[in-house]
Hints:
Chain A is mainly α. Chain A has helices at 19-38, 48-86, 99-102. Chain B is rod-shaped. Chain B has a domain at 56-91. Chain B has helices spanning 3-7, 34-69, 75-87. Chain B is built from 3 helices and no strands. Classes of the chains: A mainly alpha, B mainly alpha. Chain B: It holds the Pfam family NADH_dh_m_C1.
Amino acid sequence: MGFVPELGKSLPPPxxxxxxxxxxxxxxWCSAMLHNAINHRPPLKSGxxxxxxxxxxxxxxxxxxxxxxxxxxxxxxxxxxxxxxLHPEEFPAKEKKTFAEIVEPFHPVR
Amino acid sequence: xxFSRLFSGAAFVSRVGSRSAxxxxxxxxxxxxxxxxxxxxxxxxxxxxxxxxxxSTDVHEYKVVFRSCLSGMHLFVRFFLFPxxxxxxxx
Lengths: 110, 91
């Protein structure tokens, strides 16, 4: 939609089934069931069209939230990697020790 | 006991959890309002169609941009696309 700028078009889009979609669809469905319960109607069996519509709205919003989330994290990753590349002196490679050097001698007490 | 029963002797209370500010008639659950049902299902179908269309547009755009970037090994590709490539099986 209009939330992701042109730069984000190069990202792979989220699949139709994604975490945010499922969660927000569940939120919509539960809100429809809550609406039923408040009006003393059977929560699951009544107003199926309402439940379906609210779950759909949640799924739709969740897809765009996922897209925006992917774009935001990709931008942050890119900026962070650029900074690391431009300032290598701040990220020295850690010298690796073998386990033999770290482990203390073992004196069994039996 | 609801408060309304305490204050009025009449037995016209309908004992609903919420009241509408727009209608004064009791909600009739036996005869569904088919207009509203069809509107709800219709708008849900429209939303699903929009979603699938948007998804296919996004996939197409991504493939176009990726194919055009394949030739140039510049930073944009290295830092933006390649990490995402690893997660993608078929492009």
